[in-house]
Please model this.
Amino acid sequence: MTATEAGPPAMDPEDSGTADAGRDLVGADTTSTRSIGAVVPAIAGAGAGAAERIATLRARLMSPMPDDRLWGWLGPLLVTAFAAFLRFYRLATPHALIFDETYYAKDAWSILQHGVEWNLVKNANDLILAGHDNIFQACSGTGCGEYVVQPPVGKLLIAAGEWLYGLNPLGWRVASAFFGSLAILIMCRVARRLTRSTLLGCVAGLLLALDGLEFVLSRTGILDIFLMFFVLAAFGCLVVDRDVSRARLASAIVLQPGDDAGPRLGIRKWRVAAGVLIGLACASKQDAVWYLLAFAGLAIAWDIGARRAAGLRDYIRGGLVRDGKWLPVTFGVIPLVTYILTWSGWLVTSTGYDRNYAQTKGVTTPVISALYSLFEYHKEMLQFGVGLSSRHPYMSQPWGWTVISRPVAFYYQCYTTPAASHVCPAGYTGSEWSSEVLAIGNPAIWWAAIPAMLFCLGWWLTRRDWRAGAAVLGVAAG
Model:
């Protein structure tokens, strides 16, 4: 029995109304002219009532998008412009290597000059702040390579800023400011699609724009902002895919009726995009691997839910087999290939750390040798992370993050004058003025998020609202 022959399907409580699946994450209509050209003749050939049945089935599967197309773009762009002003204004201040900029600004410059991270002279920070950029130790071969435990994408993006503006605070922070601002636009558009409200989408973007932690990370040349951006963008692609695939499913059930598991939708471009983006997130910081697992589970749940809501009796097999068979590609092969390609600088040069490990073991086959060396390098990274036991003064536990129990001081400097022209000398006891960069979330947002997430958990458990479940899963994966 097909969905059009079945009775009212089981569906998400919020999935009602007429359908408009054709709006993408940052574009207008994902239903291309090509696909329309294919569907219209098929409807004509399917006989009277096919278009009506498709519309009815789409209404079961999806809620309509807002019809304020102009404001759907103008509102998010205004919020993004406001956020960008805050993030780019006086971006070069303070003139210092703050927090982990001491690693990533120099690693990025090394990648820009040599393709990989090289060992540095001991006074590299002083040389950089004095305007010099020759900060590398004299070396040859693999003896040049610095041992680093973070993948290259974030450093490559920082390097792009240094290529534009040089080895200075503006150069190593501009990429963070750009991606931190662009994340606001994506948040607006994703939240608009989730809530079907342009106003709520803009409110979500504005809250992110005013969050202190996102603000500080957007103005600091470290990796976390790139991790957040790519994870958010990958989630946005999944949300777009949810709408697009449900629209396709409705058409395919009517036009290509089959068994109780429903039609095959094939590999889906928005899931491919999500796979690439989550691969880039992992290549920014490997912590993103938890989102890879979470998003794969989310995709399976949404596929099963779509077929169930469409009235297909064998919806589990349809979701797991006919849709799920592509997950190893979109959330396995594609992220892995993307991740490996980001190591191209290390793979094509000969001076990276451990680059010639395979040759020392007698493995000299081209490509295989390089990948074997890369694999061994990652084993060392994993051993470092697992074995790391030294304490840090700003160390905190995950259960303390939401209550902001331990904010992190990225930078602090004492001055003897309000003009910040003279640094306090050692042992100074007179009047002082302080300059500080404190990575702390906005308490009004973070503390309010605690009951909000508890509500989402309860709402998902009692009402099975997919949006609430996605929000809870995103927090849990992070």
About this structure: Confidence is low (pLDDT under 50) at residues 1-38.
